[in-house]
Amino acid sequence: MIRVTLAHKAYGTFAALDDVSLDIPSGSLTALLGPSGSGKSTLLRAIAGLEHLDEGAVLIAGEDVTHLPPQKRGIGFVFQHYAAFKHMTVRDNVAFGLVIRKRPKSEINRRVDELLEVVGLAGFQHRYPAQLSGGQRQRMALARALAVDPQVLLLDEPFGALDAKVRDDLRRWLRRLHDEVHVTTVLVTHDQEEALDVADRIAVLNAGRIEQVGSPEELYENPANPFVMSFLGSVSRLGDTLARPHDLRLERDASRAHAEADASGVPVTEAEVDRLVRLGFEVRVELRQPEADESFFAQLTRDEAADLDLQVGDTVWVRPTRTLAGTGDVPALAG
Amino acid sequence: MTAATLTRRTPRTSKPAAFGGVSGLTLGVVTLWLSLIVLLPLAALVVASLEGGWAGFWDAVTAPVALAALGTTIGISAAVAVLNVATGTLIAWVLVRDEFHGKRIVDALIDLPFALPTIVASIVLLSLYGPSSPIGIELNATRWGVGVALAFVTLPFVVRSVQPVLIELETDVEQAAASLGAGNWTVFRRVILPSLTPAILSGGGLAFARAIGEYGSVVLIGGNIPRETQVASQYIQQQIEIDRPVNAAAVSVVLLAISFSTLLALRAIAARGHERQEAVR
């Protein structure tokens, strides 16, 4: 287990980490998720020992490593831009940690062969990093980090520099790898989809603080505050109420909508259809509240949309089925 | 010849054929210019050195004083190049990785010995290490004096070739090595140094090439003592003055050959580094 207690780190007057405490259970794959400048990378680097904390402590497997250099922490670290040793072959890159530990040759060879097999680079062992694709380089970096049997594997935006397609493949591959190796893994990402896809626990950071920690389901279904809600998934704002776009019901009949609303206690909102976007199985209805001039959108299934027979300019009544009071400041989100 | 080559190449390149005429002309100008400025004088030098036939050339080069001058030049130049490799790398390291007051001034100072007219460099050194040395170290007319002069003018080469590579070096590569358990010295030796080696060798090679041809900075402090401190360039000057152009030309050809092979070696090293660092696609 990794335990971080009251970690504080400031750059000048800017607090990158503001008294952060976090427990990361052994064997888990935890994502540190947040926008840039939220302190997620600083927290990861503090666990690695690449960043020194002003205050607070880091414990790995019960041992206080706060004042230990990265060399002595038993970690594997993977960087966004691969950090490959360019003058060494793939094989020498992976063997690096074992060679400097002066392990016997036969052991090194066996371990490197095994790892190259695991990351699917067995045929590339004599190539130089420059002769590999980005995805292959990152898999090499993973093998290199795993070679020394780290207690924890730390990944700093590992797929950030890759194409969307490669990123998806590598994400899935990392998930499978983690299920096989079971090394405690911490992954930094700003991509909520990546966090939801790959992690079994997510810690959402914002402005140097942890907003919420939990499983992907917990965070999506029961966000602690508007920030978490808007950072994980899309949000539609209706006045002071926040709702997921797929939790919005549209009615053409005002009285029916009001009757439902009275029963559930959630107010209905009048809105005008601005635009209809058909995305395969889903229809995205862009709506505008005429008096507040606020735009939001609802996601309907194709059948729901067909039943309503919506046209641009129609007036509808919007009734959220799940909501969060949204008085706080919510960052704008794309898509 | 150029026209034929160009027509053959045209189908393979995607450039419009109209450019063929322009590049034919530019190629011609470039060839002419290089011939006038570089190739013809060099050829003339080789011809001049062979005026007395092979035997004459051989005698001129192996004359004891000529051999001594060449030996002094190559020996001291090599020593200075090696010295530069060590100190130049260190200076580049300090300039890139350390923060201290006056760093910009030091950085600007590095180029001064190179930019200074070499005769001025010689006077500067003479006033410090000459017969009336204010610090009591007299290197005038000694090999040490020649060495100091050569080290002075070749100072920037290694620094300036290593510095940009060091700046470009990603710190996360060093951090990756550290996370794998490598201590500072291991990181330097196994990760940083191999990345710097091509730049260090190239800087050292350039320093060597510059040193073997150096004249101005050595002329006052070197003393020009045959078989002791006389360097090849001074020997050549002396042979011209006593009207032995063949001897001068022969030794010049040897210097030329050394410079040329140094440059070739540097290119080979650079090409090998390039092959590794850049993808062979």
Describe this structure in words.
The complex is a heterodimer of chains A (335) and B (281). With 335 residues, chain A is an alpha+beta fold. Chain A is built from ten helices and 18 strands. Chain A has a six-stranded mixed sheet with strand order 6-7-8-3-9-10, with helices on both faces. In chain A, strands 13-17-14-15-16 form a five-stranded antiparallel sheet. In chain A, helix 2 packs across helix 3. The longest helix of chain A is centred in the middle third of the chain and has 18 residues, at 164-181. Chain A starts with a strand and ends in a 10-residue tail after the last strand. Mean pLDDT of chain A is 89; it is low at 327-335. Chain B is an all-alpha fold. Chain B has one domain: Orthogonal Bundle (MetI-like fold). Chain B has 13 helices and no strands. Chain B has helices at residues 2-9, 19-49, 53-62, 64-97, 103-109, 112-115, 118-129, 143-168, 171-179, 184-212, 216-221, 232-241, 245-277. In chain B, helix 1 packs across helix 2 and helix 12 (232-241) packs antiparallel against helix 13 (245-277). Chain B starts with a helix and ends with a helix. The interface between A and B is medium-sized, with 28 and 22 residues.
Concise account of the structure shown:
The complex is a heterodimer of chains A (about 325) and B (about 280). Chain A has about 325 residues and is α+β, with helices and mostly antiparallel strands.
Attribute tags:
heterodimer, A: 335 residues, alpha+beta, 6-stranded mixed sheet, 5-stranded antiparallel sheet, 18 strands, 32% strand, disordered C terminus, B: mainly alpha, MetI-like fold, 78% helix, disordered N terminus
The fourth-level CATH homologous superfamily of chain B is MetI-like
The Rg value of chain B, from CA coordinates, equals: 24 Å
Main structural class of chain B: mainly alpha
* N-to-C span of chain A: 36 Å
Query: Order of helices and strands of chain A, N to C?
Result: EEEHEEEHHHEHEHEEHHEEEHEEEHEE
CATH class of chain B: Mainly Alpha
Taken as a percent bin, the fraction of beta residues of chain B is: under 5%
The string of secondary-structure elements of chain B, in order, is: HHHHHHHHHHHHH
Strand fraction of chain A:
25-35%
